[in-house]
Give the backbone structure.
Amino acid sequence: MVRVITGGDDGGGEAAAERLLPYDACVLALGARATGYAGVPGAEAHSRQFYTLDDALALRKELQALRLKRKGGLLRVAIVGNGYIGTELSVQS
Amino acid sequence: MRAQYRVGALMQAVATASAALFRGGTSRAPRATTLRMAQVDTGGLGAPDICVLGGGFGGLYTALRLSKLDWGDAPRPRVTLVDRQERFVFLPMLYEVATGTASCWEVTLAHCRAARPLTRDLTLALTLTLTLALSLTPTPSPTRTPSPSRSRLPSPSSTPSSSPSTPNLARSRRPSPRCSRAAASSSCEARSQGWTLSQGWCA
């Protein structure tokens, strides 16, 4: 039985509604999230993840703010991870 | 497990609670809720249930493929897709959003539209803002009309028109007012070009 809780927040806040879904088979496809940061201290606090649409929009906002601040000067952005997304992101920027 | 479907009191309680929570609900909401509960009751009998948690590439494509498979004489399973958001996000194009070369409507697609080419009837449970549960099983009953459920969707836009607003929408086999309304309520909507592109993904 899957319990679908809606209207709450990620921190387990008060849920607004709840529904039970029975199943005979269940597929878990919940996606991924960077965790651990290889034990590098401060890495989590001073970096941002790039996986969801919200991440992308936040990054765009931050880049625009930086560009305005530097007034067309050189921006230095470090991208960790050279998979498809990391490579494309570094080339596009 | 199957017996859970017959616990009408439980479902009715959930339904009542949900109906009270729909911000855009009108006086027609209770009627629509009753209708949907009836669908749940009949749809659950005899057919296996498959729950897909997560509406990314893995989840959405699994759900679509499962509902597309030829099940032969076996009863078609009822596939339910559960996701945190009402839209599928095309992750490989996300870097273009970050760099400002693409808008978010170009990389997202409402789940109900992604599933529409494969379904004749959608059981759509869009509750408040966070989670969407979408049932992908084609049901044999042709008499079911989706229109009473329209009022149940929380829609921040107050436009009463739920008719297709772009020419591309008219290309779908059976335009569902529920779907267009659901899509209209999301801030980033996959319109014209996005939908054309997305049909390719789902093919």
